[in-house]
Amino acid sequence: MTLNFGKKPLKPSPRPTYTEPAQTALELQERLGKEKVLLDLAQRRNYSYDGIAMGVTPTLVVLPTCTQDVVEVVRFANRVGLSIVARGAASGLSGGAVPLEESIVLSFTRMTGLQIDPQARTATAQPGVVTQQISEQARPYGLWYPPDPASLRTSTIGGNLAENAGGPMCFKKGVTGDYVEALEFVDAAGEVHRLERKAYDLVGLLVGSEGTLGLITEAKLRLEPIPRYTRTLMAIFAEVGQAAEAVSEAIAAGAVPSKLEFVDNGCINAVEDYLKLGLPRQAAAILLVDTDGDDPLVVEEELNWVAEACRKHGASVRVAQNPAESEALWKARRSVSPAIGAIKPKRMNEDIAVPRSSLPQVVRAIEALGRQYGLKVVQFGHIGDGNLHPNVLYDPKVDSEEKVWELLHEIARVALRHGGVLSGEHGIGLMKRDFMSEAVDPETLDALRRVKAAFDLQNRLNPGKVLPEINSHGP
Question: What is the pTM of this model?
Answer without folding.
Answer: 0.90
